[in-house]
Amino acid sequence: MKNYALAVIPGDGIGVDVTDAAMKVLNTVASRFGFGLSPQTFPWSCEYYHETGAMMPEDGIETLRGFDAILLGAVGWPKTVPDSVSLHGLLLPIRKAFNQYANIRPHRLLDRVEGPLKASAFDILCIRENTEGEYSGAGGRVHQGKSNEVAIETTIFTREGVERILRFGFEQARKRRKHLTSVTKSNAQKHAMVFWDDVTRELAAEYDDVTVSQMHIDAMAAKMVMAPEQLDVVVASNLFGDILTDLGAAIQGGLGFAASANINPDRSSPSMFEPVHGSAPDIAGQNIANPIAAIWSAAMMLDHLGEAEAAKAVLAAIEDATRQGVGIRPGSHTTDEITAKILGVLEN
Ligand code: NAD
Ligand code: IPM
Ligand code: MN
To answer: So what EC number does this one have (predicted)?
Structure first.
């Protein structure tokens, strides 16, 4: 029997509730599909920070390296720990250290879920560059007296980084509707963004079976709302992909539906699976967070581990639940009710 070592980091706020839901679903499919899971839970969070002065131990990355995959809830409790400390102490270093450069974020409107748009066809796959770009951390603050203070944040695109994420997007497009939209802002930013556009054109010539559109991020945001049916695979830089995927989540019916996989495609280190949303302090501890994004992310993890049938069963159970009207609008059901419905479908 195959057995997977799973590092589980529930994190903060609703991260804890939705990870608990995802683990229940994982345990259920593991026994149904005949594989084993050895989960180890790590309490790394803002609470952990208060206790120890760090978001994770010094050897945290080395500890995680030995696992087959990482399941994460959400990180951040800005009331007591600045986001610049919590996210840079846990989530972002994991993505970088394990070279999880491809952040896959599927956006699809599930049956009966009420999105804000009239369009019923909404099915895009956002591929977000996940290790460099606007998140490179290059920059600083130059103090020359308060009135002359300067803050710099530099976007870094490397040939390797841009080429590999675009290639990843092209490969995904080949498996879908063979259309790729590359998103930049090269009319305003004339170095990094123009470079990304150039690499897109080079690769487009190579992947000539894929239709390529190049769009600016502003027009793209409008298109996602006005004509999402014209989109298939969307490839974007770290920051642009971050913003577009909250928009994608909203069109899907809310942050509670959007799943995400931080993938290291060469598998030299573990990949990490987490919902797109954060710790949602405004609804934490109320049993009202939608666990579907986390459960869907767990399904993406199963698929990555090679348990494709189990992954399909989890997605089918999510779809069955919404088809039966469970979790289709904010507040319609509790976290426990949605989880129980999905478990019920899986057990039958
Ligand atoms: P958020 O995603 O936590 O919340 C935004 C809004 O969406 C809130 O109104 C929230 O209630 C709602 N929401 C989010 N998830 C939901 C769910 N599953 N079901 C129902 N409603 C849901 O974004 P934020 O408020 O900007 O961030 C809160 C904290 O989380 C911050 O510290 C932020 O940095 C962090 N954050 C972490 C991650 C991550 O760990 N991957 C992602 C985003 C934000
Ligand atoms: C996400 C989050 C993170 C990001 C934050 C919390 C650093 O918003 O995963 O979408 O911007 O990548
Ligand atoms: Mn985000």
So the answer is: 1.1.1.83, 1.1.1.93, 4.1.1.73
